[in-house]
Design goal:
Uracil-DNA Glycosylase, subunit E, two-stranded parallel sheet, Uracil-DNA glycosylase family protein, alpha/beta, Uracil-DNA_glycosylase-like, four-stranded parallel beta sheet
Length: 176
């Protein structure tokens, strides 16, 4: 699907999802704003949307998942704008352009239990009608895992709470 999106938007080398994630078996979906340096069209090698990437946002999610016992195999990541954006945050037109892609991702996740929307752009681009009749899927909002915002204590707390709440909901869904 990522290759199709890349062709649709004229950015043929978008980062793929880390194969260590849960893929279609994932129960937790992390939604962020957009690919950044890893989507630079000048890069031609294969890159991944991964918790192992060399950036603070990935490291923060990696550490929070470890602290909350969320196995990577239970997760998958998605960008509300799955293509490079022009500014710091997606514009309304970029969010509209991206809107058809998220339902396609959700349709590939039959075991989904939790969606964590990281940051304002992910929350702004999320349509709560996307889950339709899928009962029991919890949508949680929290701050972005990336600097500079995460460096403010209120944002750090919001991010940590979202991950913790996601872990709690996952454990409850597993116990049922």
């Amino acid at each position: 699907m990522i290759k199709e999106i890349g062709l649709d938007v004229g950015s043929p080398n978008l980062p793929l999802n880390d194969p260590l994630f849960g893929g279609i078996n994932a129960e937790l979906l992390f939604v962020m704003k957009a690919p950044e340096a890893d989507a630079d069209p000048r890069l031609t090698n294969t890159r991944f949307l991964s918790l192992d990437n060399d950036d603070d946002g990935a490291a923060n999610i990696f550490d929070a998942c470890r602290r909350n016992d969320i196995a990577r195999s239970r997760c998958v990541a998605w960008n509300i704008c799955p293509f490079p954006i022009d500014g710091k945050n997606p514009s309304p037109s970029e969010l509209r352009r991206a809107a058809p892609y998220t339902p396609r991702v959700l349709s590939l996740l039959p075991n989904l239990k939790v969606v964590v929307l990281h940051g304002g752009p992910a929350q702004d681009g999320w349509d709560h009608r996307l889950l339709g009749r899928r009962n029991g899927v919890k949508v949680i909002t929290g701050a972005s895992p990336s600097p500079p915002g995460i460096n403010r204590q209120t944002n750090r707390s919001s991010f940590e709470r979202a991950i913790r709440d996601g872990a709690t909901h996952l454990s409850r869904a597993t116990d049922i």
